[in-house]
Specification:
This protein is α+β, with helices and mostly antiparallel strands and about 200 residues long. It folds into 2 domains: about 50 residues, no CATH class; about 90 residues, Alpha-Beta Plaits, CATH 3.30.70. The protein is about 45% helix and about 15% strand. The chain is built from 5 helices and 5 strands; from the N terminus they run H-H-H-E-E-H-E-E-H-E. A 3-stranded mixed β-sheet has the order 3-4-5. It has a two-stranded antiparallel ribbon with strand order 1-2. Helix 5 links the parallel strand 4 and strand 5. Helix 4 runs antiparallel to helix 5. The longest helix has 30 residues. The protein is elongated, with a radius of gyration of 28 Å. The relative contact order is 0.08.
Length: about 200
């Protein structure tokens, strides 16, 4: 299902991009007095997008301009939402495990993320752990965010994450590798006074 949505998304982006490039290019060409097709509504630099009559046509209607502005505002918000959705990395729903019989098995990604979070948080000095699986079902990637206590050693936290939590995940799923991006932050705390 996600592959179909990705294809639809790409086709829509391509079509919208082509329309915007064609219309923008045509307006620029007319603005610079370049040759434009005879059917193009703006044919020279003296033409305007909206004539005075078009701008004043709905002047007496009090609802017209607020509706136009609201619709344009909604379109801008939808475009921003779509842009942010493109930038966000997709999370996996499940991980495909090779069982050796040709069939394979699947593990829910949320369950694997929960186990990794629990293993990472079990380390002394880790206040909170967040794990997200990305990539493909057959080759997942892991993003880990650790919130460390002030006394925690970042080196020890990374070693425990690599040697225990990620090693256990690789062993239990049969993955040869599990590329991981780890981000460490320290808990905000007040400075202690020394007397």
């Amino acid at each position: 299902m996600t592959a179909v949505l990705r294809r639809v998304n790409r086709v829509l982006l391509a079509l919208i991009g082509l329309v915007l490039i064609a219309v923008g290019g045509g307006v620029l060409a007319a603005g610079f007095d370049l040759a434009v097709p005879s059917w193009w509504p703006w044919s020279g630099s003296s033409d305007v997008l909206l004539s005075r009559a078009d701008r004043l046509r709905w002047r007496d209607e009090g609802w017209w301009w607020p509706v136009v502005i609201a619709v344009l505002g909604v379109l801008v918000l939808l475009a921003l939402w779509w842009l942010l959705a493109q930038l966000r990395r997709a999370r996996l729903t499940d991980v495909l495990i090779d069982t050796g019989d040709g069939e394979g098995a699947t593990v829910r990604a949320r369950a694997l993320e929960g186990v990794l979070e629990a293993d990472a948080k079990a380390h002394h000095g880790v206040s909170r752990a967040r794990v997200a699986l990305t990539g493909r079902r057959t080759a997942p990637r892991t993003r880990v965010a650790l919130l460390l206590e002030p006394y925690a050693s970042p080196r020890a936290a990374l070693a425990t994450l690599s040697d225990e939590a990620l090693a256990n995940a690789r062993t239990s799923t049969g993955l040869r590798s599990l590329p991981t991006e780890a981000r460490l932050r320290a808990v905000k705390h007040r400075a202690r006074r020394v007397t």
